[in-house]
Amino acid sequence: MTAPSTAQTLAPPAGQPLGQPPAQPPASERAARRARRLRGALETYISLPLFALLPLVAIWIATFHFIDVERNAALGAARDATREQVDTYEAQMARNLTAIDQTLKVIKYAVEMNGATGALPVLRRQGLLPPGLVIVVSVTDRDGKVVASNPAMPALDVSGQSFFATHRDLEDGSAAGAPQVSHTLSDSARAEPHLHFSRRINDADGHFAGIAMVEVDPAYFTSSYEHSREGERGLLALVGNDGVARALRVGDKVSWGQHIAIDGLPGDAAEPRLIIPDGVPRYAGMRRLHGFPLAVVVGLAHGEQMAQYQQHRGTYLAAALGASLLLVAVVGLVSAWSWQLAKARRRERHAQETYAAASEASLDAIFVLRNVLATDGAVADFMVEETNSRAGQLTGIAKDAMRGRLMGEMLPFYRGNGMFEELARVAQDGGVAETEWQAAAQPASGRWLQRQVVRVEGGVVVTIRDITERKLTEERIRHMAHHDELTGLPNRSLIRDRLEQAVKHAQRHGNCLALAFVDLDGFKLVNDGLGHNAGDELLKVVGGRMQACLRRNDTLGRLGGDEFVILLQDVADDPLALAPVLEKIRQAVGEPVMIAGQAVQVGCSMGVVMYPRDGDDPKTLMMNADAAMYRAKDLGKHNFQFYTREMNASVEEKLVLLEGLRKALEATLDADAPAHAGRFHLVYQPKVDLRTGRMFGVEALIRWRHPEHGLVPPPRFIGLAEESGLIVAIGEWVVRSACRQAQAWRAAGLEGLTVSVNVSARQFEEKRLVERVANALRESGLPPSALELEVTESLLMRDLNQAVERMRELKAMGVSLSIDDFGTGYSSLSALKSFPISTLKIDKSFVRDLADSTDDQAIALAVISLGHRLNLRVIAEGVETEQQRDFLLAHECDEMQGYLFSAPVDAERIGEMLAQQARRDRMRLAG
Ligand SMILES: Nc1nc2c(ncn2[C@@H]2O[C@H](COP(=O)(O)O[C@H]3[C@@H](O)[C@H](n4cnc5c(=O)[nH]c(N)nc54)O[C@@H]3COP(=O)(O)O)[C@@H](O)[C@H]2O)c(=O)[nH]1
């Protein structure tokens, strides 16, 4: 029910002339377009991703904020830890160095008191020496040679050391207060690396007297390294003011000698920087040691200090990423769903627009009707919601005027013709209803319409189609299917139908009816002789005449060809009562008819049956009428015969004969088949040259040897074989057998003999005749010139053009043709001229009375003369007497055939006759 509303929007604006450029759309339309565009922009699949950007950005801003806070906190903590470590380390080192310096001072005092060698024993005794395992103390003379040490150590000369030179070269004895610190080194007295702390010793005069030394393992200065504080890659270093590390520990590894730019280091923890060459960034702090040329350096590894921060950062980033992905996925899914929805809506809109356009362009009238309900809920009427232009044409009410109106008020007749009830039924029960009716109201009055009603939500859609043309065509087709095209009379199927109805009617009312089969006598002559058009004209005239003899409720029909049928209803149960009308018909048909300026005359043979005496069903009645009609034909034509029971015997006989023919053909073609109906065989009748008396050819004639009835003559079965079509297969067998036999005689040395074969009309008209003849010749090996086909004159006249064409094909193959029974047909001289024939055969009916009948003599002479003028040979058949032969010879007939020379005989006898003839020829030649 949504489509029509769209149709409204699609329709051109009222009043806009066709073919003119559209004017500026009205403001309302522009506003509608703007609204559509805005709606499009607000579609969820566009707006949602845009809005989703906000939380996405918020998530990441918050994440980076937290990370930054964490980072600053971590940096601050690292700075504080470094500062604390520096403080601690500085305090430790200050204590250690003060202790070392104290030792140096005690030794210096003792040397000054007790001399260089006596000082250490005195101190040892007093317990003032540090444990020798950790700290070695020694005293040198003014030349730098170690003169006393605790514990004792090998001789050592330190005069080359810079710290010794520094002490020695000091002028001012007061300057001796500053201790010196060596680089970490190994010497000849002690291989382990160690540091020398030294003080100058003066003699009583204040002159340089040597130095006091304390040697310390560098590891001693970094032993305060704790993993829990400094980590695995933290750094503790004791560095000289010259920037050279005296002791440096990273993790568990102690080393020395590295250069550390302590001047660049802040005294406090600061941003991480590379401070040693091991490539690890550290937060580093430095503090100079008061009273010593040394500084302490503490470094905390950046990675270790920021490890927790890094872990938190990873967690924050993962959480933000997860949340973002979730958001994107949710938004993506909702957008995709919304996009699909929008697409479906667009498709629906498009379909609606297409539907609206199509319905407007439709040749069918379309009504979209909304139910109007009564208080009890039943459909009381329908309101027009939408229609198309075609609906306007059909109702005569403008399309726009119909919208919103009640059907009952607009088309009141729809309540009277069942339309409303149908619409209401579909509206309530659903389904589809289809009805055809003839409109009674204007403007479609008289036209055939078809409506289809389909339920939709809240109403129905009615489609109305004008089917008048279809109805007329159907009527035409129905008429054609039941009427004969030529005469317009009922055809076989309608006659059968009417007969069935008539029999039922007669049965019900106890009435009688009569059925007559009518076959025209002599129609074939007119049709063959004057052509099909003449035949058609004759049929129409005769049909009209018969019709004129009948009452209105009688039926005249044409079964086909020249066969008609008459159905007379409600007749008296007395054949004699029918005689007047039958006689009237007979006479009417027998009146001459002018066709193409020529008067032609035909008769009719009628077979009449009556219901119920001659049959109580249509089939029996028709069969018996046919039998009666044949009896009328047999009895000399142009008469009518009432059916008697004896007539059926001949019909049955025909059926038996036909069955026998089929079996005989089967048995003939298949030597192994049982021969219940006998077999066919050929006999040959010699053809003789009238002048020389020599046999030059034979005519092949078929015979049927029936196991019960003996020899059945061709006139008894050739006609039936023709009628049933069996003649085609039988004829093929005759041609093949005759060719084979002729070739056998040739092979036996009986040269020069031709064989003639009769070809019937059905055979001649069969498409494959030429092919069949060619096959017979090829299979047998007989030269085509040795075969002659005999065709009757009337056969050729059935379809002249086709006959000439077929004869030419056979002639082109080399086969000869002759016209059989010449004189009995109606061939025109011009037609005869066009036939590619070689022989004319005078029919035996003209030969029989040749001796006595001057008419027959005249005909025979005319045929001979005509033949010779057309350069044809002439043969006379049925020559039984010498008078007949003499007459023919005297009048230059060329050949003869008949009992006088020989009846048809079997092939063996022909062989003997040919052999005799050959002997006679030899004797004549010899004699
Ligand atoms: N389509 C085919 N038609 C055939 C074939 N074989 C025969 N026929 C046609 O049947 C008709 C009768 O034939 P048949 O009974 O064989 O009679 C032929 C001769 O026996 C008979 N005849 C010959 N000489 C005489 C005579 O001196 N007197 C006399 N009363 N009858 C005689 O004439 C018939 C031959 O006639 P035609 O063919 O016109 O030369 C007949 O119409 C045959 O054509 C067949 O195989 N196919």
TrEMBL record:
Disordered: annotated span:
1-29
Q: Which SMART domains match?
A: EAL (SM00052), GGDEF (SM00267)
The UniProt GO MF terms for this protein read: cyclic-guanylate-specific phosphodiesterase activity
GGDEF domain location, by residue?
511-645
Q: Report the residue ranges that make up the EAL domain in this protein.
A: 654-918
Q: Which UniProt keywords apply?
A: Membrane, Transmembrane, Transmembrane helix
Q: Name one GO biological process term.
A: cellular response to nitric oxide
User: Pfam family example for this protein?
Assistant: PAS_4
**Bilayer-crossing regions:** 44-67, 316-339
Q: Which InterPro entries match?
A: Biofilm_reg_signaling, EAL_dom, EAL_sf, GGDEF_dom, Nucleotide_cyclase, PAS-like_dom_sf, PAS_4, Rev_trsase/Diguanyl_cyclase
Q: Which reaction does it catalyse?
A: 3',3'-c-di-GMP + H2O = 5'-phosphoguanylyl(3'->5')guanosine + H(+)
SUPFAM superfamilies assigned to the protein according to its UniProt record, in alphabetical order: EAL domain-like (SSF141868), Nucleotide cyclase (SSF55073), PYP-like sensor domain (PAS domain) (SSF55785)
**Do you know which NCBIfam families this protein is assigned to?**
GGDEF
Q: What is this protein called?
A: EAL domain-containing protein
Organism from which the protein derives? Massilia forsythiae
